Amino acid sequence: MLNIEKYGAVDIGSNAIRLLVVTVIEQEGKDTIFKKTSLVRVPIRLGAEVFLEGKISDNSANRMIDTMMAFRLLMKTHNINRFRACATSAMREASNGRELAETIEAKTGLSINIIDGNDEAAIIASTDLKNLIQDDKVFLYVDVGGGSTELTVFANGANVSSQSFKLGTVRMLEGLVDDCVWEEMEAWIKNETKDFKGVSMIGSGGNINTIFKKSGKKLGKPLSYFYLSSYYELIKSLTFEERITELDMNPDRADVVVPATRIYLSAMKWSRAKSMFVPKIGLSDGIVRSLYNEKVAAELEVR
Fold first, then answer.
1. Cβ neighbour number for residue 32 with a 10 Å cutoff
2. Quick one: pLDDT at residue 158?
3. From CA 166, how far away is CA 93, in angstroms rounded?
4. Mean pLDDT, consecutive 10-residue segments, the chain of 303 residues?
């Protein structure tokens, strides 16, 4: 006997807003299956104006309202059972972020949780990431977003330490990242990994997913430092237009992919990691898993 439900997760980032629909299949006596059913991505670059002006413009606010309204209708047609929306650095730093969240809820009925970097890291850690993290290995998890980069060190199968840095692709494109932020992240990575040998990296985010897809590697196989370094030199040598036409990138990916690759390469260098795994797990996946874990916990309490 199977119990099948659909879950919806909205990730409101600095570069784009995503709706992930997951079919959750419970089997008696077996592991629950999480099957990704649909992913819709709308490139509303909130971070570009928030990091420069400190607020979300009326135009972007209206686009957000329309997007969330569309997401509500999509979830209705998917017969979503459980849903949660989380917003990260752009809405968190916008002076009108909470006001806009209230407006969206009033107009669409969808509540938005504005979370910090530590919450984001914890949500992502609730995913199948733990299946990749082996007890006898050390991993540096790096999630690069438009507004921030979240770092977590895993050793002996457990979370050793986590930190969030205001070092994101949209901030870098706007020239809003000081050298001191790079220096702080370098010092943190070196300090947190210095006692470990053979550190491997886990990369998360739309940019590294794009790079991995173009590499032709099979899922589960890592990217090498040499490959990523060579790819970085390639994309730097091309113009924005050439990345779109020659590398078949979307316009909203063709600019941020360069600073994102620099962040991943820097993290690999500072942690002495020679390879990076790309499990294609992000905040949306973590939201779904958190919703499921809450459901299971509630059922246990009832019993």
1. 12
2. 77
3. 11
4. 94 95 93 94 93 94 97 97 95 96 96 89 73 76 92 84 92 95 98 93 93 91 96 97 96 96 98 93 91 89 62
Q: How does DSSP assign 151-177, residue by residue? A: EEEEETTEEEEEEEES--HHHHHTT--
Nearest of 232, 249, 230 to residue 240 by alpha carbon: 249
Rounded Cα distance between 289 and 272, Å, is 31
The first and second tokens of residue 122, run together, are 């914890």
| Rounded distance between C-alpha atoms, residue 297 and residue 292, angstroms | 9
pLDDT at position 160 is 84
Rounded Cα–Cα distance for residues 282 and 255 (Å): 21
Write down all domains in the chain, each with its CATH number in brackets. 2-116+284-296 (3.30.420.40), 129-280 (3.30.420.150)
Q: Which residues contact 172 (CB under 8 A, 6 or more apart)?
A: 259, 262
Q: What is the pTM of this model?
A: 0.88
